[in-house]
Queue: 4 jobs
Job 1
Amino acid sequence: MTHFTRGRLARLGLVGVAAASLLLAGCSTVGSTSDAGSSDAADDGTFTVGFAVGGQPDADWQDLQGDVAKGLADQRGWDFVELSNDNSEATATKNADIFIQKGVDMVMMFNGQPSANPVIAKKYADAGIPVVTFDIAQPGWYFVGVDNAAAGTDGGTALGELAKEKWDCKVDLVIEAEGTAAGQINTWRTGNAADAIGTVCPDIPEENYVKYEADGNLTTSLANAPGVFAAHPDAKNILVVGLNDQAVVGALQAATQLGRDGSIMGWGQDGGLITGPNVDPNLVGSVMYFLEGYPASAFEIADEIAAGNPPAVKDTGDDAAASVKPCAVTAAEAAAIPDINERVKELASAPKGTSEYDLYCKS
Amino acid sequence: MTTSLITPADPAAPRSPGGKTRRPDSRGLPVSARDALSIAGVWVALIVATTIVRPDFLSTQSLLAITFTMSITGILAVSQAIIVISGGLLDLSLPVSLIVSAWATVTVLNNGLPTWVAIPVGILTGMAWGALNGIIVVFGKLNPIIVTLATGFGGLAVMLIFFKSAQIPAQSDLRLYGLGRFLGLPNIFWPMVMVIVLGGLAFAYTRWGRRLIAVGGNASAAKARGINLRRMRLGSFIGAGAVAGLAGVMFSAVTPSFTPAAGASFQLIVIGAVILAGISLSGGKGNLLVLLLSIGFFATIPTSIAFFGLAPAWALVFQGALLIIAVGIDGYRLKRTAR
Amino acid sequence: MSDTTSTATDFALSASHITRRYGAVVALADASMQLRRGEVMGLVGDNGAGKSTFLKILSGAVIPDGGDIVVGGSPVSFRRPSDALEAGIETVYQDLALVDTMSAVQNVYLGREELSKNPFLRLLNVVNDGGMRKRSREVLTELGVGIQSVNVSVKGMSGGQRQCLAIARALLWGRQIVILDEPTAALGVRESAQVLELIGRLRDHGVSVILVSHNMQQLVQVADRVTVMRLGRTIATRDVADITPEGIVGLITGAIPADVSTPEDSATIVH
Ligand SMILES: Nc1ncnc2c1ncn2[C@@H]1O[C@H](COP(=O)(O)OP(=O)(O)OP(=O)(O)O)[C@@H](O)[C@H]1O
Ligand SMILES: [Mg+2]
């Protein structure tokens, strides 16, 4: 152990730290090994759907997407082959080969490592198999994703309405908990939410809107948000929007730490922290995406493909083949929505063409 | 060995000409005092610059913001400093150590056990994690950076299996402690100060600290003095783990909900603060009070940025640039004093 | 000249028939040495003769394959450096002696820090800095080791000062035997003189010294006896009074025959 030159090695190692921590922040690469679905797609004329779940271990909605899709395929009497991409480029690529070899009629997938998608796209294009991709766009693939622009607007509108009702639109500070790394999605969710507040309460002056970097996680948000409150010491009525629930709750917690939580309301995105026993009392609402329900939209496209008249490929976030409708909910409404496993069950027994938005958001 | 056998006088070129004071280090102020002054200087410059732009920067709100941001980073930095000073290079698994301890603490509380059980369990979990790293490093004779990089990844993977997110009970004493204040500053600020002071005193005035510095500064010399390197290295990992465990306890008190990856954002700031404090990656050197200044400086950056009204991404740019500068300074210090 | 008449207890250290090989390389074929109390024993030999290996065995850094070591009358078996330290043998390594980032007093007391006299602080493992500082100042003054302050880092000190500090440490710790491997190799003339002077003072304090040096002039200045090594064997021991530097060189190179029969001597005969 005494034989390496410490200083140099240490500095070399440091270079790796940046990369490592980015990776750590992102996701890890564990997961169950992919198990090919049982039904072999023999050319018996039955329509066969190949479904690749993401396989990211801390996201149970990914596995549940598979369950929902299986239910929808059964409903239609189709064959169904499920694989897991194991949150890995290599597995995602290998799975493409397996689907092609099994002769599936179409593929639906979530791949958290989009760098592999061009290769996979080439394989499917050569085999003439149409693909539906969730959340991450790839030219030539039907894009199914949540309508982030609408999610931002809906959340901001709901929060603006509350501010109008409670404070008569007298808002001293609108805090935007940004996640710059999320790019356009951040602009849609955070930016549109702030714009929507301005639409509901047009008299809030421009300088009352402030942004800070929350990086989409509670820890970073909680580290950076205190300064924002300190920099606006006279602000009483405060609104918070952001990339996701974690970012927003980070700001709300910072307000509590600095004793600025007397009159503050936050509206999150993604519903991550709006349910459960410990919801932050100042998180008044969030926007749920029902990620597990994506297959419902994908199967509408599949129906047309199976019927022999495939729709035009729409492959970008701006112009999606199917947009999943987001659902802005108050904390009270969120409490009434069943948990994810329950939702999957209810969706499976719902009539064909029903989305979770239809089930839980039409109040 | 350079000399021939029959030279009448010693012809070996005098490698240390003059033999007197050759380096500025040995004259005037001790190195740590100069480090302290330069970091304090930069910190004061930042405060003055911010105050010129926004006179209301000097407020209790800013003080609360900065001290709060310092708290967990500070405890983690002490843990990292113990590793670095004792020649263990770096512990890249510190974020995992933090979260695993926080998770253990919260799990104990969620099972209805009292706070006085939860806190020791959190600290012991950190120690166990440190022991795991230490055992692999010491008995596997492996580079600690590689080992902790690996255990960091492995630990995260295992945590992802056991929990998606963990929440501290909203009404638990620990949670209420995390929301409270003492002497006008956040409660969690004080354990950080205590750890820095106790750690600093231990390094400076205990046999244990002396030997740790010696092992980090020159392991062969320490070994030749009869110091058990294995025991010291293992001890440093376990001790650093205990401190990381305390950080985990404090983290769980202020973070209502966290995921396995929630510790990642501390990594670069902690390493940056440690290096900026003059705690050289080559080991055997460091002063925890300088570290306190360094942490204060790092913690002031986001608040200053908020006061300047700069775009959010600047916080990341600043901290990244600082890390590069800190590593550069460390390399420069080493080069200058190499001979 | 031969020491075979004395019994082992008369010696500070007695090593007999030590062997050690590294794979195919025989670093020590048969090394013996009888070190009297309060004498300076020179150890000489050509490069690769096995001097360093022999010293490392006596200081516990290398474990011998065979042979016996007796220290102060009792047989010992060193497994690690701390065993030799405990037996009263202090070794000064040229490069590895000091921790650069620590002060002179910290270095002197490294591994043997005095704990505070206050029982409570003692329990907390707190060291007695004042006491250690005072005592090290005394000893350094007594030995004539000139350093500016015992509190500054040793990094800024000259090679001679560092070497003296490392040697003085031995006396402070009450060692009976001090082993020095080429202590003046990297030093200038004046600094070498300092070190040699210090070695003389150690002897005056009753300490036995083993000194490896390639510099015969220095050796005859300070040593009482010399042991000559050749190809892993100790081949002769002489009183310095009886021999010139040229004589020692003759023994080293083989120009003067060894006291014991060695393989290359017989080879020479065949030749
Ligand atoms: N760790 C080791 N591994 C292999 N061979 C070694 C090792 N240490 C010493 N040797 C070999 O043992 C022999 C004796 O080496 P040693 O260092 O004891 O000689 P020396 O008399 O001190 O020489 P020098 O005057 O050059 O210092 C040499 O041939 C050397 O190459
Ligand atoms: Mg040698």
Job 2
Amino acid sequence: MARSPINNLKENEGIAALIFLILCTLLAFKISPGVGTSNLAPAVPHATAPWIFGPFQVLLLYLPPWLGALAVPALIIIGLAGVPWAAHYWGDKWGMRIFSALFSLVLILLFWFMVKELWWTRL
Amino acid sequence: MKDSKETETSVQRPILMSDHDQKEKLSPVHKLEGNSRNNFINHVRPRFISERVLSVFYTFCLGGLSFLAFLMLGITGILLMFHYQPGASSGYSSVLTIGSVIPYGYIIRNLHYWSAQIMIVTVNLHMVRVVWTHSYKPPRQLNWLVGVGLLVLVLVLDFTGYLLVGSQESGAAATVAANLLKQIPGLGTALAQIALGEPSALSGSTLVVYVWHCAVLPLAMLWLQLYHFWRIRRDGGVRPL
Ligand code: HEM
């Protein structure tokens, strides 16, 4: 008898959960995250943000703080929130276009950060 | 009364439907859901499910994995709380103690860190999947907004977690964040104090950040996630485990 698609999905979700847990455990055993610089050590001249906040650091580097770290991120979040309404009023394609534009912008900034802060400065 | 009986059956026996059949037959379910607005269980086990969404390649399990990561973070986070002490110098030294002295401390800390990193990736991919399958469109627009709220919460949790390390780098990050908040006219200074307390330039670990990171934000996130799941059902959406 063919297995029900629901049970099939449950099994697949179980496998995905296992893979996730194994990956986390392997990473946890193999790679310890850094602890940064002690506050008792001499002051460091430049702090690199964690990769997740790389896009912020890049924006702050080139734009005034109110624009780079408040206005632009706020616009990105508002833009994301508005995707369903953009699709509703201007058509499906616009929902996709706005999301893709915002998401690519963040990815480009992240890439920029990786090259500039994590690679270039270490050469 | 008849409705509540039907509800019970629906809880026990979910029925499979093809996409084609679903269009017509879904309507009684929606009517039924409208009558039992507050019945959480009813939405966790809906009566009808579209066959298309029962493929693992529809969701790629990304929402479920994000929630699993959240649970991992909760468990490892509570374990970390046994030994972590917020404060300008105690924050950093307790992280070192956890990493080198406390039995299994380093593995708990590493698990906490890596689940957080993976969660950022799964949440973002989940959002891409939702856009890919056009699942943000009505009637799911409210759940999309809830999702955006969750995304912001994940980022803020990540940031406050980074501050709690109490290193010089976290001090720099806290100082930048405080200075940014202070730019907001009128409210800025108060906001910075409410959000971060009094971080020093050499350590972002304060009691205020600690309470945000370990209590307020995770509880807000848990509540929002439960609402997110409830809404998935209410909008007639996909079926997680
Ligand atoms: C903590 C973060 C999140 C968790 C734990 C979570 C969890 C889930 C789960 C378990 C599902 C069921 C389907 C699936 O697994 O893909 C789902 C669906 C959904 N999520 Fe999320 N989610 C999160 C963040 C987000 C974000 C950031 C967005 C968008 C901005 C979003 C929007 C949606 C929408 C619209 C649905 C309905 C999709 C459909 O019916 O096909 N979620 N979420």
Job 3
Amino acid sequence: MAVKDYLRQRFFPQIWCPGCGHGIVMANMIRAIERLRLKKDEIVVVSGIGCSSRMPGYLDFHTLHTLHGRALAFATGAKMSHPKLTVIVPMGDGDALAIGGNHFIHAARRNMDLTAIIMNNSIYGMTGGQSSPMTPFGKKATTATSGTIDHAFDFVGLARGAGASFVARTTTYHAKEMIKIIAKAIKHKGFAVVEVMSQCPTYYGRKNKLGSAVDMMKRFKEGTALIGSKKKAKHPDLIERGIFVDEERPEYSTSYLELIERLGNSTTY
Amino acid sequence: MRADVRFMQGNEAIVEGALYAGLHFYAGYPITPSTEITEILSERLPGTGGKFIQMEDEIASMCAIIGASLTGFKVMTATSGPGFSLMQEAIGYAVMTEVPSVVVNVQRGGPGTGLPTSVAQGDVMQARWGTHGDHSIIGLTASSVQDAFLMTVEAFNLAETFRTPVILLFDELVGHMREKVVIPQPGEIEVVERLRTSVPQGTNYHPYLVREDGRLPISDFGGVHRYNVTGLVHDMWGFPSSDPKVAYDLIHHLVDKLEHRADTIAHYKEYFTEDAEVLLISYGSSARSALHMVEDRRKRGVKVGLLELQSLWPFPGETVRKKCEGRSHVLVVEMNMGQIYQEVKKAVSKPEKVFLANRFDGVFISPADILRLLNVIQGKGV
Ligand code: SF4
């Protein structure tokens, strides 16, 4: 099937600005799903609030557009009650790591089989460009007009420390890599989280004079390097891309089903 | 068949009622005085093939049950005051998305952390208006352990019938009190199952197209109909819309589906009301003291009666108005500063005849407390 076969075209055009990275992530997520030959009826996509969280509405799966920061909590209920479903959670950086930070670390710790895709554009887009927990120190936002004095999260360190059993990073520039990583993340049995560096030319780009969407994507190319690559060795300041954590650990809903069995019972799912 | 008679705590009866009604998924977070519900279900649910999860907070608990309900199961969470405050955002989401869900609030003293282990009924208005925006909600309560069981079953039935969150507004005393309970045999009392759509696969299913009778047949996540659910104002597809007509119709539907049925949803009990000159109106554990006082006065020939409300929201105004008609006085008995008292005054034709006997200091209201007020309104001094 083509990407469009996974879309609810009735609801187009979508709301994203021209050049926004979120459409690229949506298309590549679909390609990853296509690659895994998953059935549409078995997929639930749960999001919170923000530009990126509008994604599920356009997708022809079971889709749930929830509250700011709470997507993982809703997803936890859906997955736990119906473990056969594949549950994917697209989120924004503010959504996942500020208001949703508590849910994020606990989802990671619990290791339930959910796939979180965090579109990190370093800003709150929907509300007009405020600084987020991923806005780098010194960068500008409407709530940090002289440059933020807040420090950004070390995303990989946070996810790893909280117990995520799959942690990866890619960017909107690296389409093939993104498809591969998202497919791996969905296949991973446990809590998988992928940070996708995504561009918001409208706010983050404009506030920080980063040029057009294309210019911003070029920065993703130039400013990142694969884990353990020569490029990274030569330029230690570059942001690493690739899979940082990929471990097997007891998955929560499986452990729960085992508990039911140990108690001599069975369940519908 | 021999009746299943047990001696148990209110919080245990809530668990039994939920399991009787078909509870499959529970998410919770410990908080006094509702913790026993979470503890007992952590043990009971896996044994019945059901699902239990302890979440990171009450916000997550409420969100998790909504997610689980959409996959086709009966769901519940339980909490108390501060946790109930945290749940309000997601309760509003369940109202807007019409997801069947049951929320137990075993009330304690407030505001803030208040009086964690004391009895109170201060969350009555929060149950009604705790979440933002125009909406309606169902709120039930009970004064005994047996009724806590029955009202819990009813909460699930109403949640399924109307696709709404239902609040079980118990109080610390009922939650922790131990009494005899008769557990009905399966099938003895009605258990309402979810109304599912009959639209076949391959045909357009409109998840939010309201049927003529006001109901919305559901399709479970994981089933053959793939649709969108959003907390934004949405059209019949479940897709966000800012069309004023869509918003108007949706808000009207959400409010009318319950408010127009307030008096059919109503649950109440009456004691000595027929010839009562003074009518007491009470609910929850306060109704126990009210009944005690009424029985005591009746022995002395005083014509008092009690209307015990078991459904507080939507407020059964028409029922209350009729029951109050022709009485010399109405005395509302509750453990807050008059939250239902105000509703009664709004409902009756002679609000100046309505009085309040209350306590809000963490001490259980006694028959003597109520009698003092009765004496005052009957002109017998303090
Ligand atoms: S504001 Fe930024 S993140 Fe939002 S749609 Fe526009 S470009 Fe994308």
Job 4
Amino acid sequence: MPVSGIVVRCLDGCADAVAGRIAAFEGIELHGVLPDGLIVAVVEAETVDGEVALVTELQDIEGVISVQMAYHNFEDLEAERP
Amino acid sequence: MGLTRRDFIKASAAAAAFAAVGVPVVRPKGAQAAEEGITWGKAPCRYCGVGCCVLVGVKGGRIVATKGDPAGPVNKGLNCIKGYFLSKALYGKDRLTTPLIRKGNKMVEASWDEALDLIASKYKEAIASHGPDSVAMYGSGQWTIHEGYTASKLMKGGIGTNNLEPNARLCMASAVVAFMNTFGSDEPMGCYDDLDLGDTYILWGANMAEAHPVLFSRLIDNKLKHPGVKLIDIATRRTRTTKMADEYIAMRPQGDLAAINAIIHVILRDRLYDEAFIKQHVNFKRGKENAPYGLKDKEVFNETPADIKNLTFDEYKVMMKQFTPQWGEKISGIPAKKIEELARIYSDKSRKINSLWTMGVNQHSRGVWVNNLIYNLHLLTGKICKPGENPLSLTGQPSACGTAREVGTFSHRLPADMVVMNEAHRKKAAGIWGIDPNKISSKVGLHTMEMFRAIDRSELKCIWIQCTNPFQSLPNVSRLRKAAEARKAFIVVSDIYPTKSTEVADVILPSASWVEKEGVFGNTERRTQQWFKMIEPPGQAREDTWQMIEFAKRMGLGHLFPYSEKGFYKEMWEEYRKFTIGVGKDLAPYEAYAKVRGLRWPVKPDGKETRWRYTEADDANVKKGEGIKFYKAPDNKANVWFRPYEPPAESPDKEYPFWFSTGRVLEHWHTGTMTGRVPELRRAVSGATIEMHPEDAKRMGIKNRDKVRVTSRRGTIVLPAEINGRGTPEKGNVFTTFFDETKLVNELCIDAFDPLSKEPDFKKCAVKVKKA
Ligand code: SF4
């Protein structure tokens, strides 16, 4: 299962509310809400596909400015290469 | 059992994210163990011109992880979502792994020898009967510097034709011409640091949040830390960028030409300019006007020295009197009051002003002019070459700057700002290449649009396309596809996946990509970044440089590439570097790049990079006491150009009442041959849509996701409507992305181009829209 460490940047004063919404996502672990409206979280899903679905949903939460990725580990994914 | 290992990987992921935002966390001991066996190597991101630094984790010959590089000054440990899928882009099921040769309607597997022998024989045949200008090569801003350099030396110095073009003609050519005719040297004076240090950012038709996400984050960081920072979004479409802007100013397509002229009018009228700066650093010029649109084949338009008139500042002021704010409002749709306001912002001495732009300005039938006008704003107000205060032209492809522009893989260029028309330049290039200067043709080669039209006219007999997908990405693409399908030329395509271009190829060659080879990219801010090979390419896939050099050998041109196998990259680099030394474009020795996360040229004699050009504050080519010096321009002065308004090639009318524009969304990149392979990216934004203004949609009874037929004079296409989605075009405009292979939206686009840069205008043509 791929795992990624992400940083979610929120509008001023929105971080707590966004963190609350994120906490309810299955597959996302909240790791910290920092001053400056930054949220650190870890995403995991069965497939990278699933991870992206989660991240895309995060982007559409009211108050989210951007979602960026710091680390992505996908070592146990099936090799597709011919 | 997997529990602990998994937890440790998660701890590593969290720690990396914390580190990227400046919070150090100690990883549990096991986390290190979980990463054991992974070797990390540095590389620039494969995807866009921002040029983020990434770390690539390899285990057992496979990429198993990626990180934003914490030591990378561009992105400081964070990638955008495209960066997320970087390594997977190499692992698609349909990777090309063996050379293929056309036999009738079938492509059959062949050996490298068979394929290369066939290509060489076709090229030889064409050259023997029709001369060297009957063959061509079409490359890419995704080529590494070594690949572009190999192509340039092969075509210009070896075969003796300037028929070499990069796909960057479609994205950066207008920026290049304006840099050259304004400052005498390509590429920006400023750098990304300006995004951290400025306080006013004016975006001209650029959706930075989606097209340059990591840079936009830097800008937003600055804004969040400094509440005085202002972001003004001037555009024809509301986007994610608009959401973060302090102000959105709606503008009509082609309105930039009028709006900027009117802003300049106010600056001059109210004496808001910097007189001392102008006296010392600026010349005034008027160029050739009433330019054509390139719609006819073989149309020639050049701005020669004889066409250029020198003006005094007073003459220029008189000429600008006609462009009143009221006139500006009439054409651009920007209220005269706003134009007055923008003039005051641009000339506010207490503000550090930055202009940012990209395809909206470059893919424009008067793209060079708009670039010129933006520079005028900065030159007249003296807001240039200062930390935190610069115009910055943003690029799209990872090495549009490094390869297409610096190496000079355009049909008129040679490395380091030199051109084939100039005898001294040809001599210098021939000297470094060790060839007879007469070998380099003084005749400008075919520019991209003419290159592909020449296939249709049966004038171009052979073309080799590498690392790009023109038979999807060119405007009015159906004419070109028909010509290719009629087998009017012998077409070779080197790529990593099947594309719309491999479909029409006679020979398909499997290439190595990104970290499957060693390479160097150059990004938007003059940063040159090197990486080493980390994994093997699949099957028989080989590097583009190897392919070209093997071909060269068969053409009797092997002597042009005398590099040793072991020292290949370094030796070729050191040769290329000779072009850059002492001309204000200095690159560092190859080894230097292996150690750092890129260096911004000109690299100083002490090995340090240059953040700001033309200023004594940072540029070693400007002596202390000289202040600012445009030392690459004749008499050390930059040009302010008089550039009037001229309409686009096609505007909406009764029959085709909508403006049609194309662009990019965050999750996709160009024609999607890499991002589109990644199934998860596809799903995130599956398929092209047509964005409409809700009022237009309502009036026509079109609801979200309804199928809509969009028709131009050139083609027709059915797309689902997107209303109140990610972007909302202004009333009377529709917008679509161009990544979807199944929908050739470029069939709709007009093949009009800028007469100076020959860059097509993908942003403006007229269409009708009907519920399908
Ligand atoms: S902004 Fe561009 S260079 Fe940076 S991670 Fe995203 S795609 Fe890659």
